[in-house]
Each structure stands twice: as C-alpha cells, then as structure tokens.
Amino acid sequence: MAEDNLVVATKVRKEFGGLVATDDVDFSIPRGAIVSLIGPNGAGKTTFFNQLTGVYQPTSGSILFDGTEVSYLPPHTITKLGIGRTFQNIRLFAQMSAMENVLVGMNCRLHSGILGAILRTPRVKREEAEARDKARELLVYCGLPRRHHERSVSLPYGDQRRLEVARALATEPKLLLLDEPTAGMNPQETAEFTAFVSKVRDEKDVTVLLIEHDMKVVMGVSERITVLEYGAKIAEGTPAEIRADERVIEAYLGRGAGQT
Amino acid sequence: MTSVAERARGFATGSRDKWIAPGVIVLGLLYPWYEDILQSLPLIGDFIPSTESMVVMVAFTMMALGLNIVVGYAGLLDLGYVAFYAVGAYTAGWFASQQFDQVTFSFLSSVPSDQPGIHITMWLVLLLAGFLTLFAGIVIGLPTLRLRGDYLAIVTLGFGEIVPQVVRNGDNFFGFDLTHGTFGIAPIDAAGFPVLASFTSLPKNFQTSPNRAMWFYLGAFALLLITVFCTVRLRDSRLGRAWIAIREDETAAAAMGVPLMRTKTWSYALGAFFGGVAGAYYASFRGGAFPADFFFQFSVFLLCMVILGGMGSVWGVIAGAMILGYLDREGLATIGSKIQDAGLDFDPTKYQFGIYGIIIVTMMLLRPAGLIPERRHRIEMEEGVHDTPFYDVEHEGTLTDRDPSDD
C-alpha cells in the first residue's frame, strides 16, 4: 500500500514563536485507508490538520496531496483539490438551514456566476435544482432524513455532528478529515458513527484521517495509527502495534490499555 | 410537533404573504396620484411626505439596500459607504454636465446637442456610474478586505473620508479641474426621454416637465424595483450563500471551499454598484453633485437604516430606510412645527442625529434583530423546498399550500 499514498507530508514543522507545535513530522496516508492521529492534548494534532487544510502555513517542510504541493495554498484551493474537513468544536453556519450548510459545501463544485444568479438562466436553475437534490440525498445518507430547513443551530448535538460530515462530503473530497467527531456523543451514537465512517470510506471512495480520543473508536475503525506527543511523531503502525508500543503507553494510553 | 392551529396560522399568513409584495409595488407606483388625497386627510394629512421627498427617500433606500449586501449579507462592517455615493454622483457630473467643456459630446441627451461638455443620456450614465462605482469598490476592497471586524471598519472609515477629500480638492487635480472643488458640479443634466418624447407624451426632460416630482419618482421607483430584484436574486444564489457563510463563520467558509477574498470583494463591489446608481440618479434629481453631501454622517445614516430595518432583510432595510429617510426629509420638521404650534420652543431638526441615536438604542433594546428581521428559513419556504407533506395528515385530503412542482 505504501506505494500509493494520497498524502505525503515530509518534515512538517510549525513554530508559534518559541513553541514548536509540529516538530518535523513525516506522515503519509495510503489511498483508501482510515488513518487515526492520536496523542495527548496539545500534541499538535489539530495544528497538523490545520496545515493540511491551509489554515496555517508550515514553517518548513512539504505536504504533497495527490501529487500537488499544498502547504502554501489557501484553504479554499485545497478544498477544491479534494480535502474536506469537520471541526473539533462544531462550526456550522448557525443561521443557515441544514440544506444551505450542505449547499455551501458544494459551492466550489458549482459554476453559476453573478449574471446567472440575477437572470436565473435555465442553466443556473438546473444547477440549483440538481444541487438541492444532491444535498437532500447527502443529508439523508448522513442520517438526517428530516428537518432540512431548520436553522442548523436548532438541531440536536448529534445531528449537528452529522451535518458537519454531510457538509464536508458535499465538497466532494478525496480525503476526509474528521477532528474529534465523536466528542460529546453517547456510547451508542459513537458506535453508530464508527460504523458510519467505515461505510463512507467504502461507498464514497474517500480516504479518512481521524483525530480521536476515544480509543474504542480509534482501535475499532483505523487501519493505521500515528501517535504525536509534543509535536513529534513517537509511533506509527497498526492498532495492534500501537497498543503494544511502550512509548505510546507511557505517553498516552496509560498502563492497562492492553486489555481494552 | 407543532399544533394544527399553529400550522394553520402559518399557512394563512403564508398565503397572505403572497399579496404583500405586489400590493406594496402597486401602492408605491401609484403614490403620486393619491398623495393629494392622503394629504387632505385630517390629523395625519400633515405627516404625509410629498412626492418630492419620496424621490429622495427611494434613492436612500437603494443605497441602504446596496449597503445591506455588504453589512447584512456578508457581515462586513462598512463605515465608508458614502464614498460610493460620491463616485456615483460625480460620474453623473462628468458624463452629463458642462464640467468638461473642452469637449462637446452629446448622446441621446435631454439637453441641446450644441452645448459644451459631455452629455450622455442619464439612463446610460446610471449604468456607467454603477460600473465605475463597482470598480471603485474592487479597488477599495482588495487592500482592505484582508482585514477582519473592527480593523476593516476603521479602514473603510478612512476611505469614506479620502474620497470626499479628493472631490473637495479635485479642482486642481495635477492641473486639471476634475471635480470643480467645493462648488461641486452643477447643473447636472436631468433624466428624460429625449427620443421617445418626439412621438409620445413622455417628457423630454424631467427637470423642466410640469410633473417634475412625479417623473423623478417613477424613475426612482423603477430603479428601486430593479435593485430589490437583484439583491433578492443575489441573496438566494450560490454567491449569496457564500456571503452568508462568511458572515456566520469565516474560517469554516474557507474550509468549505469559499474563496474569501473574491467573495468579499464581490459583496463590496455589488453593494457599491447600487450605491453608485442611486447616487447618480439623486445627483440628476438635485441637479448637482456637491462635496458637502459626502460626510461621514451619511455613512452612519445609511448604516442606521440597515440596522433599524434588520440586517440582511430586504423588506426590513426598505422599511428602515423609508422611515429614517422620511424623518430626515420631512418628518422631523413636521413634528417640530407641530411642537411649536403647541407653544413649545423645541426644534427636533437640530437634534437630528441625537434622535436617530435614540431610535437605534431603543431598537437594540426592544427588537435587536430589527423591525422586520431576516427570516432565513422562511425564504426557503417561499422558494418551496420544505418538508411539509402535500396532504395535511391531521385533516386528511386537505391540500396544503405546497406546490408539488417544488420537489
């Protein structure tokens, strides 16, 4: 699998003043895999995410996505290349409906311009109708069969999480980044979500990178795991290898993690 | 689950809503004809604005709707909108007056073709003003829109001061009289139908027509309708969604593939466009562009209209602009004369901005979302994509007002 990597990050380094948030991290994501990024709080997981999506520019190093150097591109260009993401703390467009949230996600795949919008030409009308159909399908697919026209802020928490995934999928990503997607979910919701992630990978043909603290989710769903601590990669491997890794147990899992 | 009664009420207002827009358009269009009747009414008659004032109110409403694109849709605080009004007004001055008397050029204009200066028909000048202002919006927007929040507001404030200063001192622009300095450019040609006038009863020139106010009002009203149409269509488009997404969460919008700079610049440019058109038309109505009009207060005045009506809400902004426009043109003076008739020595026009301030503060306390708040989900309902079943389940067989073609 190593020969076909969707993402190849080499020596990615980000400094905030004196603080080294990611310390020359080498990281690769095989195409079609579900990969998890774990580590204690402040280990640089989200910073790494943000560099991958263009929110931050790395101080040094390179990130190749599907053969393109993305480390210095603005976020919307990276999204268009095919990286969709969710946020650690939900960042939906609160006053917009669930449907509109998904439609914003489709923004970069639509083409209507200003004159088209004002004149509402048949072509624009058709594009809008198709987009809405697709958005509806996507919402249902992500487990939101109803309430498409309620303001997203009034949706229940779990539905907001699902909506974030739907919105990210609307960008038609090749790589889906999920930043602690099960935070705040109850065990049943978490189990459902884990199954959903595998389903999305299989059916939508995406690669998934997951930041997660819930070890059940991480061990259950991922094919590869990377562990960060203080911005540096301390281990990488299959779930079984990670569970057995002395340094990881020391830094993060804690003694007794082998039993879970 | 909402109760049946609640839903029934919802539908009732829904079907009534359909008549509001056409009703308002007809009432607005016919205003010059029933103005006299209203003014002869007891008690309220004195408070009815003249058609002359309505022209200005409608022009202000257009500007407020333009500002609403920037402030209401895209959530960018713009304190320098008056700059666009100035650019629009001076475009009218350049292309429809004797300002550049070095040349003699006339195109379908309402003034005789042998007059010096550039005289292009006002309708074309309006379009020209719109596009020049749009361009000004892009030029101002590109360097400033990288900033966020308060910083953006401060820089727009700066541009709102720069443009009026340039026009005030533009009588010696590298040795060239660009703006005629503090005197302003006057007279500016009036709108009219010089070609159609030869074989119809339409006036050749609004300014000299016996029904001057009426013709200017009808022109302004037509422009307002176009503005409303465009701003509503833009709001409900892909671009409009991107604006609102930026307003809600800029970082998330960028991560969802919305190009921030381009989207913001478009909001600035399109908002400016309508300000420019309105500014040019107003200049044509006043017959001049005067630098004394372009003060910071005017930007704040327009911003007050948007806030009073409800940021992002087209109906709200129209209401807010008409109310404040009315107070500015006539309302305060009328109220003042009533107060003085009652024997009190108080002139509200002197405390104009204080009174607007009180109105805004009161609004913020009582209705912070504005007179007619933006109802995002209702837009969707009007468009017809919603989850109501075709048949009311509780009253089987009763058709709901949903259009089956919507899905």
Write a concise keyword list for the protein shown above.
heterodimer, A: 260 residues, alpha/beta, Rossmann fold, 6-stranded mixed sheet, 4-stranded antiparallel sheet, 10 strands, B: 407 residues, mainly alpha, 2 domains, two-stranded parallel ribbon, 14 helices, disordered N terminus, disordered C terminus
What is the number of independent domains of chain B? 2
Structural class of chain B: mainly alpha
Largest sheet of chain A: 6 strands, mixed
- Beta fraction of the residues of chain A? 15-25%
The tally of domains of chain A stands at: 2
Class by SSE composition of chain A: alpha/beta
Low-confidence stretches of chain B: 1-13, 377-407
Cα-atom radius of gyration of chain A: 19 Å
Cα-atom radius of gyration of chain B: 23 Å
User: End-to-end span of chain B in angstroms?
Assistant: 23 Å
Helix content of chain A: 25-40%
* Adjacency order of strands in the biggest sheet of chain B: 1-2
Mean pLDDT of chain A: 89
CATH architecture verdict of the largest domain in chain A:
3-Layer(aba) Sandwich
CATH class of the largest domain in chain A: Alpha Beta
Largest protein interface?
A-B, 48 and 35 residues
Distance between the termini of chain A: 28 Å
